[in-house]
Amino acid sequence: MVDRTSSFPGRQILYHQMRTYESDGAVLAERTRQHGVFRSDPELREEAQLHLSHLDGPDAAWLSSLLLNNFPEKPKWAWLLHLGGAMPLACFLGMALWPILLIPGAILALLNLVIIETYGRKITPFFEGFSGISRLLWVADGLSALPDSHTMPPIKDLRETAPVRLQLRRRLGWLAMDRENMGDIAQAVIGYINLALLLDIQVYLGSLTLLRRHQTALVKMLEAVGTIDAAISVASFADGLPVVATPSLVDERRIEAAGLYHPRLVAPVGNTIRSDGRSILITGSNMAGKTTFLRTVGINVILAQTLHLCLAEKAAMPRAIVRSSIHREDQLVRGESYYAVEVGRILNMIHDANGGSLHLFLLDEVFRGTNTLERISAATAVLQHLGRAHLAIVTTHDLELQDLLAADYDMHHFSEQIVDGGYSFNYCIQPGPTKGRNAIRLLELSGYPENITRNARQMADQLTSQTGSKFT
């Protein structure tokens, strides 16, 4: 949903931003400012996107790999290649006076053909990268010419590298030509020129020195172009949302939000939540919104620390690393059951909790893959460990946990509304514990046979009355 970029560099920068918790408040504030610039100026955004779209082709896909790694060194015998390009030309020019030079000229041309088929084939893959660099230079020129009354740093960076672009464009023009779309005659002429002069190889070797010299500037251009595209993408994403807030980030175990919602919902229900130094246990019926709320909190805590926005009316979010155990399933290939997968994931959380960084742990129905007695016992011990030094938000159907975790967790719940023989959900989180069980009542309202629901109620009453009983 967030990715509305127009270029490969934009997608890569956006991916990096969304995968990296940014601790520098100034960097986050600048991102918010740039999002605002493009949201407030649709014409500027559209003009920039037109330029950026030229970096969406296959030759742009490998730009980052090419520029972030060292360019190859010139071979020690490069002088022989220069000589091989010059000698055939000298022979062919001298044929007007000494026709005998046709023979050595032809021999040298054959040697050049061998060079093209051996060394030339090794370096040909770089030519597509050079074509991408040429497009990058062209796009950087266009973006640097945009009106910049807001003094955006990436546009400033592009303007500062203009002299470098001029040098590189002159050198790379030959290699960056789109030869595949040329006519047969043009391709034949270029082939003969290469055969006689090794021109592709000559330009390639000459470009290496220049590219190595200006590699830092090229990376700076790439990042500036990608940053502009990423900012436009986030601005477009925010424009399509009902409401967006700039969060305040706090270095403590606190979440406070009003109107918090999930971006994937067509008609989202905003929820208000506040946790000041305590973890949260959430109970309630299936389908009432517990798991969606967990995901909503996780997404917004990540967005707050990466793109510096929240899907809410207002929000204060912790600077915390988010870890979750929500979607779990058997791993048949590895031979791991549902419970084994969950055990391993929660063990990783325990290891994370022993570190120095604040974490937000999101757990959905802890240990539901095992029997009731051991599930409640193990869940209590684990959640006490995770929730005391860190912030944990947990959903459960085990109402016994409300009493067992009361010292460390605030209780919240979702509920259903039963009216006129039917039920519905408002998906609003409420403070306080769940006061009753409605699962069997929902079976009745869903049309289950009366004898089944009657027997279920009798069994529930019997088990409830058996204080200290053990059942699975």
Termini separation = 42 Å
Residue runs with pLDDT of under 50 for 5 or more positions = none
What share of residues are in beta strands?
5-15%
The dominant shape is elongated
Number of helices: 18
Main beta sheet: 6 strands, mixed
- Rounded mean pLDDT is 86
Share of helical residues: 55-70%
Q: Strand order within the widest sheet?
A: 6-7-8-4-9-12
Radius of gyration: 32 Å
Order of helices and strands: HHHHHHHHHHHHEEEEHEEHEHEHEEEEHH
Give a count of the beta strands, DSSP E runs of length 2 or more: 12
Label the structural class: alpha/beta
What does this structure look like?
The chain has helices at 8-19, 25-40, 42-52, 58-61, 63-67, 78-94, 102-144, 153-160, 162-172, 184-197, 199-213, 215-239, 290-306, 338-353, 372-389, 400-404, 439-445, 450-465, and strands spanning 248-250, 254-260, 271-276, 279-283, 314-318, 321-325, 359-364, 391-395, 409-413, 416-419, 422-425, 430-431. The strands form three sheets. A six-stranded mixed sheet has the order 6-7-8-4-9-12, sandwiched between helices. It has a four-stranded mixed sheet with strand order 1-5-2-3, covered by helices on one side. The two termini are 42 Å apart. Helix content is 55%, strand content 12%. Helix 14 packs parallel to helix 15 (372-389). The chain is elongated, with a radius of gyration of 32 Å. The protein is an alpha/beta fold and 472 residues long. The protein is built from 18 helices and twelve strands. The model has no long low-confidence stretch (mean pLDDT 86).
